[in-house]
């Protein structure tokens, strides 16, 4: 067994640590990319995965239907890997019934068409005033304070409030989510399965209550939230089964808050660590859109796509990936591919806008990207305007990172004032 930059290389398999690798992941991604566009990894769960390390190959994989998400192909790969349960290591697709992340077309297209409208740029733009008011309210609570936790007191309430309001999840139950969601997204956590079950049960009950309102003939616009719209669609054209409804709600709730919390947290962190970029943004507030794109590229919260499984043997990147193999794109590594992004390890908000992979690519391209961008652009603009002197209250090595599949600080202690 060889040792390469802290990686154990056993024959052709490279052992990739899970959480530890997320603390300082970029030397690892660079090392993997130097080995080739497709590398054979063994994840912390002991599962063999073909990792995609370079931009061009990532695009080719994500637009190729032979890299499948359907349960038939995933089951075959699971069987081959000797795992019986959902061992993807990426629990947001771990629900048993159909949702966007565990189906291929035509099922995927049917499910996606049901929710696409609710997340379209036009519909999300209608939320701008609400997001601004929420951000201002959170910032007003920090007035006169000397320090704060910008995750617990800022990023998290923005992420959870917006996705819950959009889906129609009532206020009183939100306090349980953080605990359930964090554990459900922590591979190997003792309470992972139980937290997943609690969240699923909560959503099933909520949907039953909303369905009763719809069945009792409540006017559709009396409760114009996404869950009610999906329930109504189920009634009119049988578009969704009951289990699909719960599974879809689960996916949107989970994918829709931890990720944006991570984006806002990582953005604040990067600006505090690059004060010259913060000054630049203060001088040119119009740069905010591309500044958030640069945060997504340089330190996005989602480091790997969910798993695909090959539906047949596929020749790619100089090798043949056999049918029934797991494949995962290493997004954060591809976002620093020097062929596409010159000087990729430099955080530079004036970098020419060019699409990055933070939101994925192809059929499973992120549903919630417009919402995520609106929250992050508004949150960062207003937070940095209110607190241009914000700085880390601990050394960067002491930042407590969330032990989930999302790269995000669990807490972000900052100090205000000079
Ligand atoms: C898919 C990233 C916010 C809902 C994805 C994928 C990525 C991603 C990389 C593709 C996964 C794959 O191909 O395996 C992010 C990031 C976010 C974010 C970085 C925030 C910064 C959101 C929000 C929602 C959301 C706010 C709200 C609903 C989804 C859904 C999918 C998805 C439902 C699956 C789409 C499909 O399979 O058709 N996201 N996401 N995401 N995201 Fe996001």
Global Rg: 21 Å
Number of domains: 1
Distance between the termini: 52 Å
- According to CATH, what is the topology? Cytochrome p450
Instruction: Characterize the overall form.
Output: globular
Helical amount among residues, as a percent range? 40-55%
Helix vs. strand class: alpha+beta
Cofactor: heme
Organism: Bradyrhizobium rifense
Function: Cytochromes P450 are a group of heme-thiolate monooxygenases. They oxidize a variety of structurally unrelated compounds, including steroids, fatty acids, and xenobiotics.
Pfam families: p450
Topology:
Elements: E1 2-4, E2 7-10, E3 13-15, H1 19-23, H2 26-35, E4 38-42, E5 48-52, H3 55-62, E6 67-68, H4 71-81, H5 107-116, H6 121-125, H7 128-140, E7 147-149, H8 151-167, H9 177-184, H10 192-215, H11 226-237, H12 242-273, H13 275-283, H14 288-299, E8 308-310, E9 314-316, E10 319-321, E11 326-329, H15 331-334, H16 369-386, E12 391-392, E13 413-415
Parallel strand pairs: 3-4, 5-11
Antiparallel strand pairs: 1-2, 2-3, 4-5, 6-8, 7-13, 8-11, 9-10, 12-13
Bound molecules: protoporphyrin IX containing FE.
């Amino acid at each position: 067994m060889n040792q390469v930059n802290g990686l154990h290389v056993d024959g052709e398999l490279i052992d990739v640590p899970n959480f530890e690798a997320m603390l300082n992941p970029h030397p690892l991604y660079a090392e993997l990319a130097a080995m080739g566009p497709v590398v054979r990894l063994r994840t912390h769960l002991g599962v063999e995965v073909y990792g995609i390390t370079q931009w061009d190959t990532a695009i080719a994989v994500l637009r190729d239907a032979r890299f499948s998400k359907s349960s038939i192909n995933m089951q075959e790969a699971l069987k081959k890997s000797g795992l019986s349960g959902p061992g993807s290591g990426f629990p947001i697709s771990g629900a048993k019934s159909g949702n966007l992340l565990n189906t291929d077309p035509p099922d995927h297209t049917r499910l996606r068409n049901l929710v696409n409208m609710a997340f379209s740029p036009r519909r999300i733009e209608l939320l701008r005033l609400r997001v601004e008011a929420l951000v201002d309210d959170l910032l007003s609570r920090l007035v006169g304070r000397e320090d704060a936790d910008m995750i617990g007191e800022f990023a998290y309430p923005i992420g959870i409030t917006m996705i819950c309001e959009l889906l129609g999840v009532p206020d009183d139950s939100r306090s349980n989510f953080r605990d359930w969601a964090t554990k459900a997204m922590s591979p190997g956590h003792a309470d992972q399965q139980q937290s997943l079950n609690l969240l699923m049960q909560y959503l099933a009950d909520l949907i039953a209550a909303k369905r009763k309102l719809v069945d009792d003939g409540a006017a559709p616009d009396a409760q114009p939230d996404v869950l009610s719209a999906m329930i109504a669609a189920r009634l009119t054209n049988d578009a969704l089964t009951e289990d699909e409804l719960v599974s879809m709600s689960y996916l949107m709730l989970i994918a829709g808050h931890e990720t944006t919390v991570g984006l806002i947290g990582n953005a604040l962190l990067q600006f505090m660590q690059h004060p010259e970029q913060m000054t630049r943004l203060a001088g040119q507030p119009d740069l905010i859109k591309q500044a958030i794109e640069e945060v997504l590229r340089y330190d996005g919260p989602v480091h790997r796509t969910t798993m695909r499984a090959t539906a047949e043997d596929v020749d790619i990147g100089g090798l043949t990936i056999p049918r029934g193999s797991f494949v995962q794109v290493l997004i954060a590594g591809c976002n620093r591919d020097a062929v596409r992004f010159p000087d990729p390890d430099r955080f530079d908000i004036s970098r020419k806008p060019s699409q990055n992979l933070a939101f994925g690519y192809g059929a499973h391209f992120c549903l919630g990207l417009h919402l995520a961008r609106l929250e992050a652009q508004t949150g960062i603009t207003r937070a940095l305007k209110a607190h241009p002197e914000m700085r880390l209250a601990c050394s960067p090595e002491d930042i407590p990172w969330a032990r989930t599949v999302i790269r995000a600080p669990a807490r972000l202690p900052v100090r205000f004032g000079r």
